[in-house]
Amino acid sequence: MAKRKEGAFIEIVLPNGKYAYGRILQKASFAFYNIYSDNNISDINAIQKSEILFINSVYKYAITKNRWKIIGVLDIEPKLKELPMEFIQDNLAPTQFEIYNPNTGEVRCAIKIECIGLERAAVWEPEHVEERIIDFFEEKPNKWFESLKIKD
């Protein structure tokens, strides 16, 4: 059983046989890189130089049950040490919003426009992240991402 280690690079073998890569960040967060490859990549320095597609919290069993394989570790660079803000929308009162700071756990009231462009505060199943990556590269809408968007 693998252990979650901050700064570790992960290899994700997608259901379609392609490879994607991510990075374990603080708390439950992962950064996912703009890589969609037919072949596995072992050079973590090359992976590190790639653009980040998105950052999400993911259930730890993705690592502890070896669904995603750790392929190396580097210190986390400063730009990834501070996690991006996330939004919360009240399902019973959809005009009420909050901003969640995953770095501190603080929550504050917000207006809808402040939440645009942020990810919803949620913990993703690893298989849903995999589907999101495939859909992104195949230029298809992703049902999981769409379900978490701001509701009107």
Account of the 3D structure:
- The protein is an alpha+beta fold.
- The protein has two domains: 1-82 and 122-152, no CATH class; 84-121, no CATH class.
- It is 20% helix and 30% strand.
- The chain contains five helices and ten strands, in the order E-E-E-H-E-H-E-E-E-E-H-E-E-H-H.
- The protein has helices at residues 44-48, 61-64, 112-115, 126-137, 143-147, and strands at 8-13, 19-24, 29-33, 52-58, 69-73, 86-89, 97-100, 107-110, 119-120, 123-124.
- It has a six-stranded mixed β-sheet with strand order 5-1-2-3-4-10. Strands 8-7-6-9 form a four-stranded mixed β-sheet.
- A hairpin with a 4-residue loop joins strand 2 (19-24) and strand 3.
- The longest helix is centred in the last third of the chain and has 12 residues, at 126-137.
- 23% of the residues are buried.
Overall structural domain count? 2
Number of helices: 5
**Main structural class:** alpha+beta
Indicate the mean pLDDT.
96
Distance between the amino and carboxyl termini: 43 Å
Tally of strands = 10
Arrangement of strands in the largest sheet: 5-1-2-3-4-10
Shape: globular
Strand content: 25-35%
The Rg value, from CA coordinates, equals: 16 Å
Q: Largest beta sheet, briefly?
A: 6 strands, mixed
**Helix and strand succession?**
EEEHEHEEEEHEEHH
pLDDT < 50 runs, ≥5 residues: none
Level of helix content? 10-25%
